[in-house]
Design a protein that fits this description.
Aminopeptidase, two-stranded antiparallel sheet, single chain, twelve-stranded mixed beta sheet, alpha+beta, 29% strand
Length: 339
């Protein structure tokens, strides 16, 4: 009997009733399934599905594995490559980022999630990945079930790794602490990213390639979302020694993400350069027309950045309306026996 819903609609996707006798298979995403399967991941991740259909990409392999019951999709696991942190050296290990794992509501607690996670592990190992990682927030409705799935699939115990704070830029820019930020010393110059010279960019890239700058704090990370007129660098002796990069958040569509605040280690004890950069970025955001479209800000701080965490809790949090911790987990992969 045909279903009373149109193919690709939410109702059609979740109208596949559970059947204990159904034949279950897991395989790669097929082009014709894209409208239907897109409801089995977060809206912000759906553009990855098209890359998965295309197969190998210039930036690596996007894995979208579909669980099917008698040929009908009932689950999806989606993952993409993580940037290599060694600047592309031959010794770099490939790491995969798990974006989502979903199953049809009528098929939950039937082993579909475990089957998808096992298939992802096999697929990642066969493609030469050394590990799979995931990052998520307890704000997810399925947070507890997801953590149980990770543990049952043999992943490491979830841990806190980053704190995310949300604010209205109109509130932040009038925070009392901004009035007490020290003056920029004369030997330094603030420069917006859209004013960086070719020499500035080349010098930063060399330091990234040699590992002098951690890749996770690269000013060029996620450059497709970068707002260069809001992002700000600090030049000293013809060298960019610090920066605050701002991105259009791909998840919170009315927010700017304050992605990375970096100060050269030899300068971190001098002149309060971190707060100076953050204050300048806040003011640029508030004064720019983009604040009409994106009036919110998201400030991320890793738990290992102790001094920055202290700065955020003392200065930034009083101006925020919400804060919560992100969690992470990972699975180390052994080479396949056929390798």
């Amino acid at each position: 009997m045909s279903l009373p819903f149109s193919s690709g609609t939410w109702e059609y996707l979740f109208a596949t009733p559970y059947s204990p006798s159904a034949s279950i298979t897991v395989d790669g995403l097929k082009a014709g399934e894209l409208p239907e399967v897109s409801s089995l991941t977060f809206k912000s991740s759906r553009e990855l599905l098209e890359k998965a259909i295309d197969g190998h990409q210039e930036n690596g392999d996007v894995l979208a594995l579909v669980a099917r019951a008698d040929g009908r999709p009932v689950g999806l696991v989606l993952a993409e490559p993580m940037p290599q942190r060694d600047g592309g050296n031959a010794t770099g290990q490939k790491r995969l980022l798990l974006r989502s794992v979903f199953s049809n509501l009528l098929w939950q607690h039937k082993g579909i999630g475990k089957l998808l996670m096992a298939s992802l592990e096999t697929g990642a190992r066969d493609l030469g990945y050394s590990s799979i990682q995931t990052e998520y927030t307890p704000k997810l409705e399925s947070f507890e079930a997801f953590e149980r799935l990770l543990v049952s699939a043999g992943w490491k115990s979830p841990r806190l790794f980053m704190e995310e704070s949300l604010f209205w830029i109109k509130d932040m820019v009038y925070g009392d602490w901004l009035k007490r930020v020290p003056q920029l010393p004369d030997e330094y110059e603030l420069v917006a990213f859209d004013r960086l010279t070719e020499a500035d960019r080349a010098g930063l890239q060399v330091r990234l390639n040699t590992g002098d700058i951690p890749h996770g704090l690269s000013p060029f990370a996620e450059e497709e979302h970068l707002v260069p007129e809001l992002s700000v660098g600090l030049r000293h002796d013809s060298k960019i020694v610090a920066w605050m990069s701002l991105l259009r958040s791909p998840v919170v569509h009315d927010a700017i993400c304050y992605r990375s605040l970096y100060v050269d280690p030899v300068l971190r004890m001098a002149n309060g350069l971190g707060p100076i950069l953050a204050a300048d970025a806040f003011r640029r955001h508030a004064a720019n027309p983009i604040a009409e479209e994106r009036p919110k800000g998201i400030f991320n701080t890793h738990h290992t950045a102790i001094k920055q965490m202290n700065f955020v809790r003392k200065r930034v949090l009083p101006c925020c309306y919400e804060t919560y911790a992100f969690r992470s987990s990972s699975l180390d992969l052994q080479p396949s026996s056929s390798s």
